């Protein structure tokens, strides 16, 4: 199973999103800026959806672990947007849980591949 990023351009774009997310979250933490914190939350959702879409393209079948990881990441990203809009703690917790589950499934897929 090839669980690498695929195209170089896609890998660089996702890497840039992740680096940008950490820069914005650091800025928001240092300055206590609520707008920057909101931008960081939205960036987190975009990253989750982008990584989920990338993994979905690499799955071997509809019931593969990568398909589950992709679905969890995309759903977590969508719930992140809902949590930002509604300021719902329940949606925020569900988003975090789904992203954590998606990353766990991805790690499991890597472990099984080797």
Radius of gyration: 15 Å
Mean pLDDT: 90
How far apart are the termini? 9 Å
Work out the strand percent: under 5%
Number of domains: 2
Compute the number of strand runs.
0
Reported for the largest beta sheet, the result is: none
Class by alpha and beta content = mainly alpha
H/E topology pattern: HHHH
Instruction: Indicate the overall shape.
Output: globular
**How many DSSP H or I helices?**
4
Poorly predicted regions are 1-5
Transmembrane segments: 12-30, 36-57, 64-84, 90-111
Keywords: Membrane, Transmembrane, Transmembrane helix
Describe this structure in words.
With 114 residues, this protein is an all-alpha fold. The chain has 2 domains: 1-32; 34-113. It is built from 4 helices and no strands. The protein has helices at residues 8-31, 34-58, 65-86, 89-113. Helix 1 (8-31) packs antiparallel against helix 2, helix 2 runs antiparallel to helix 3 and helix 3 (65-86) runs antiparallel to helix 4. The chain is globular, with a radius of gyration of 15 Å. The chain starts with 7 loop residues before the first helix and ends with a helix. Residues 1-5 have low confidence and may be disordered.
């Amino acid at each position: 199973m090839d669980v690498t990023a695929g195209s170089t351009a896609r890998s660089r774009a996702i890497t840039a999103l992740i680096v940008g997310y950490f820069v914005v979250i650091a800025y928001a933490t240092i300055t206590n800026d609520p707008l920057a914190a909101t931008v960081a939350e939205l960036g987190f959702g975009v990253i989750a959806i982008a990584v989920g879409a990338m993994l979905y393209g690499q799955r071997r079948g509809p019931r593969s672990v990568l398909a589950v990881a992709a679905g969890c990441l995309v759903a977590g990203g969508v719930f992140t947007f809902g949590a930002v809009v509604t300021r719902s703690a329940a949606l925020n917790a569900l988003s975090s849980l789904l992203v954590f589950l998606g990353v766990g499934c991805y790690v499991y897929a890597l472990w099984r591949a080797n």
